[in-house]
Amino acid sequence: MIKDQTSSEELKQLLNSYSNENTDFWSFRDRAEREHTHVYFQYPAMMVPKMQGQLIAAVRKVAPGTNHIFDPFVGSGTTMAEAMMQGLNFTGQDINPLAILICRAKMGPFYDQILQKKLGIIINAARNDHNTKIDIDFPGRDKWFQPKIAIELSHIRKAILNEAELWCRRFCWVALAETVRLTSNSRTSTFKLHIRSEDDIKKRDATISPINIFETITKRNLTSLAKQKKTLKDKGLIVDDQYRGYVEIKHCDTAKPAYNVNSYDLLVTSPPYGDNGTTVPYGQHSYLPLQWIDLKDIDDTVGAEWLKTTKEIDSRSLGGAKDKALEAASDVQGQSKSFRQIMAELKDEPKDRSVRVAAFYRDLNNCIDPILTSLKPKAYMIWTVGNRRVGNHPIPIDQILIELLNARGAVLVTRLQRAIPTKRMALRNKSSSTMRSEVVLVMKKGDE
Ligand SMILES: C[S@@+](CC[C@H](N)C(=O)[O-])C[C@H]1O[C@@H](n2cnc3c(N)ncnc32)[C@H](O)[C@@H]1O
């Protein structure tokens, strides 16, 4: 027990020593670049890779047995790639099928030379396809894609489907997803689906070619993959073009009972901040790219029902189901004083605001027991969270999370504050005033 407290104290001192030397240290202002496979796709609210790497390394200094990392909201796999860089085992899960695809493409294998040849064949086949049929159909297709764009995207899709190797198709689907993001009629300045002006659509239609964009993206991603492989290889972490450690990515809802019990040494995660209905809709952002991808190549849990509407994935995510949210959040009120206070403040606001907040915290609370069950006793946890406002009310997710975890015997080791130096929060939309800093909570699970 005494040794335990010592290691928490050591970790706190170590982490605080960085910011004592440089108060801006955790902002990673000049170190927020995304390299290696982190560049594959513009996923919303991505974490800063080097910061996560530094946090993991700090925990390993005080707890050298740390071997298996868990991220229950894995997103585009920032934690996964950093865990791999340190030669660790990793388990990640997410409810968004696109997140699963990106992670599975990023985890390898790293057959860069074969990939280069295969990409040449795929791009050639797409360029030589003169069929004018559009291969996919869904409500709103013609609103979101100009016919010329949809025809070229069909050529790329067909060429990928003809590739025999799943690992190669996954790499290509991610590049196609990014191509769709850049060539659809939805604005790229926001994560929500938001149609461009007619003028803008006309101008773009004359100049952009999905095949050219796909080619550029595959080249960039291939270079990144080769760099990542080299870095891993230099560290002795590649055998037969595969990562030497264990990496597992699961498509599931973190609020459901845990698959594994007492399994992971360290949690490193960034849950949604409670604004997926409003400013950071992970599912909506993924909706158009997923229409073009063969869902079977992602996971056998993913079928067309995940794309029933533009809101389907978000409605299955934290805070997505609003039914009886206020009643269901009474559990959370019992465990968090800060949550009780915020619900009291929201009483006089339009009802949908308190329902939104209640739905999100009901679901976040439902994730905590499964997460703690998955971790080994006394495991450290690193939660990166962002406070936001609803109406004029700041919602302190950091404080609420601390209280919900305290209620289950976990303790706070330290709390680091960081400014968000980049535009990765879609700062051009309304969220800019609500999200400018993040908090990193370092916590420790209790004995059980
Ligand atoms: C802040 S993002 C994670 C971003 C990630 N750290 C990165 O760097 O890309 C939060 C993630 O939580 C996922 N999510 C939301 N509700 C979920 C649930 N019930 N179960 C699992 N994942 C969920 C979203 O799909 C999203 O990918």
Give a written overview of the molecule.
There is one protein chain. The chain has 448 residues and is of the alpha/beta class. The chain has two domains: 2-108 and 243-444, 3-Layer(aba) Sandwich (Rossmann fold); 112-224. It is built from 17 helices and eleven strands. The chain has helices at residues 2-21, 49-62, 78-85, 97-106, 112-127, 141-144, 147-161, 166-183, 198-207, 210-234, 282-291, 312-316, 325-328, 330-335, 337-345, 351-374, 397-406, and strands at residues 68-71, 89-94, 238-239, 242-243, 247-251, 264-269, 375-385, 388-390, 393-395, 411-419, 437-444. It has a seven-stranded mixed beta sheet with strand order 5-2-1-6-7-11-10, with helices on both faces. Helix 3 links the parallel strand 1 (68-71) and strand 2. The chain is globular and about 65 Å long. Residues 43, 45-47, 73, 75-76, 78, 93-96, 99, 253-255, 270-272, 282, 317-318 line the site of S-adenosylmethionine.
Small-molecule components bound: S-adenosylmethionine
- What is the CATH topology of the largest domain? Rossmann fold
Structural classification: alpha/beta
Query: pLDDT under 50 segments (min length 5)?
Result: 423-434
Mean pLDDT: 91
CATH class of the largest domain equals: Alpha Beta
